[in-house]
Write a structure and sequence with these properties.
single chain, mainly alpha, elongated
Length: 181
């Protein structure tokens, strides 16, 4: 899934760059730059945004906060919520699957055993722990995504707690960024 997503994103970016005379330099990563770049994809803009958001979630590359704020700025409150929620759903699902099925040893080496206590909490009360972390982010969400896949939490509990837990912040972010624009 991740390879297909990244491949499709790469194709879209390459194709867009080939037909773009006034392309924006993405080294200046601001909501305004993101807005103009994403809207350059025309009717595909929301889909491209969702793919960017999902890939950003999987890759651990910052700044996901700027991508989140850009959603309301680009698509308004409703479209922004749809974009972030869809991108989050795809991205967090992919990280969970990568960790659960492919990255156990790799993620364990990165975490160096520091995640064992967190994994035990997830094993016992997974839904509640993830919901709390999403509502009150004490641990970076990207780390939570990967560590959750290593635990025994059911995917259903993980994704439901994630989507319910991030929804209030997504609403606030998109409304705030739309009003600022």
């Amino acid at each position: 899934i991740a390879a297909v997503t990244i491949g499709l994103l790469g194709f879209l970016l390459y194709n867009h760059q080939q037909h773009c005379n006034n392309c924006i330099n993405l080294k200046i990563f601001t909501p305004e730059v993101i807005k103009h770049y994403i809207l350059g994809f025309g009717p595909w803009a929301l889909g491209v945004y969702i793919l960017f958001y999902a890939v950003n979630t999987v890759s651990l590359l910052p700044p996901i906060g700027i991508m989140s704020l850009a959603a309301g700025f680009i698509f308004g409150p409703l479209g922004g919520v749809i974009g972030i929620m869809a991108g989050s759903f795809i991205g967090t699902s992919i990280t969970f699957v990568i960790s659960r099925f492919f990255g156990g040893n790799f993620v364990d080496k990165i975490a160096k055993g520091k995640a064992l206590e967190f994994q035990e909490k997830l094993n016992k009360n997974g839904f509640k722990v993830i919901l709390f972390i999403r509502l009150i982010p004490l641990i970076p969400w990207e780390i939570v995504n990967y560590v959750s896949g290593l635990s025994k939490i059911k995917y259903r509990d993980y994704i439901l707690a994630t989507m319910i837990g991030i929804f209030p912040a997504v609403l606030i972010q998109t409304y705030f960024s739309d009003r600022l624009s």
